[in-house]
Amino acid sequence: MFSFFMKAAAGVGLFINGWLLEFAGYQAGADSQVPEVIRNVAIITFVGGPLVLIPLAIVIYKYPVDRKFMKDIKGALASQR
């Protein structure tokens, strides 16, 4: 099951990367890219990255995994046995 989700995540990531490069105007196989494409890729990289990571960091920070939480989970699992 884990392998499937890893492959699915890789596929989705590649799809998003391809879409973003197309959006930026990237021309595959070109000897060089026009300055506008280079600027667009830089904007997507340096602005888009933090726009994705900041909400994810908030979710991770709010996720309630601490020692007490783990102790409660272990206790609940032990009582089910």
User: Largest sheet, if any?
Assistant: none
Order of helices and strands: HHH
Q: Please state the average pLDDT score.
A: 93
Kindly report how far apart the N and C termini lie.
25 Å
DSSP summary: helix tally: 3
Briefly note the structural class of the backbone. Answer: mainly alpha
Strand content: under 5%
| Share of helical residues | over 70%
Please give the domain count. Answer: 1
Uncertain segments of ≥5 residues (pLDDT<50)?
Answer: none
**CA-based gyration radius:** 21 Å
The total beta strand count reads 0
Outline: elongated
Which features characterize this protein?
single chain; 81 residues; mainly alpha
Task: Explain what the structure shows.
By secondary structure, the protein is mainly alpha-helical. It has one domain (2-80). It is built from three helices and no strands. The chain has helices at residues 2-24, 35-62, 67-80. The two termini are 25 Å apart.
SSE layout:
Layout (H helix, E strand, L loop, with lengths): L1 H23 L10 H28 L4 H14 L1
Quick structural summary:
This protein has 81 residues and is mainly α.
